[in-house]
Structures are given as C-alpha cells and as structure tokens.
Amino acid sequence: MQKEVDYDKAIVTKYPEQVVIAIARDARGKCNPITLGWTMITSHRPPMMAISVGLTRYSLEVIRHASEFVIAFPNED
After folding, report:
1. CA distance 3 to 9
2. How many other β-carbons are positioned within 10 Å of the β-carbon of residue 41?
3. pLDDT digits (tens, 9 = 90+) for 16-64
4. Separation between Cα atoms, residue 18 and residue 2, nearest integer Å
5. Of residues 12, 61, 60, the one with CA closest to residue 36
6. Which residue has the higher pLDDT, 65 or 9?
C-alpha cells in the first residue's frame, strides 16, 4: 500500500544510488566518460539498457560519433 510523504522525507530513501558511467571514444580516440543520472534496463534478451544524456552535452556528440558506448557499474573498491 502506498502512502504519501513529504518530499524531504521521501528523497532520503532515494540516495545513495549506484553510480553508472557511460564511456565512448571521441573522434581523436580519447575516452569520454559521463556519469549518468538515469538508466533503465529495457531487455534481458538481448541485453539492452536505455540511458538519458542531455542534448547539449559533449558526451552525446561523442556517443553519436562512436555509434557505441560501454556502461560501467563501478563499486566502492
């Protein structure tokens, strides 16, 4: 059963979130990592994820140029 709570109380249950990083190579071959604030699993077979990158971000230009990227899930180690 859901219950309504104030934003200040609800937001503390959201964090900490797992850090997710997308990495692609730019036109010069340099790796460009971007920390992602939103990711979502869209399929298990085949494995697919959706990410959100702002339209004005350099990282979007890099991902479009590379036509591929890697998603990393670093841990505290």
Report:
1. 12
2. 9
3. 778 899 999 999 999 999 999 889 999 999 999 999 999 999 999 999 9
4. 24
5. 60
6. 65
Please calculate the CA angle 55-60-64 and round it to the nearest 5 degrees.
120
Residue 38 identity = W
Q: Which of 17, 39, 30 lies closest to 61 in space, CA to CA?
A: 30
Residue the block writes with tokens 């059963």: 1
If you search the block for the tokens 């460009």, which residue do you land on?
Answer: 32
Residue with tokens 């900490």: 16
Residue reference for tokens 């890697």: 70
Residue with the two structure tokens 């959201």: 14
Give the tokens for residue 72.
Answer: 């990393």
List C-alpha distances in Å: 18 to 23, 39, 46, 58, 60. 16, 10, 23, 23, 21
Place of tokens 């979007």: 60
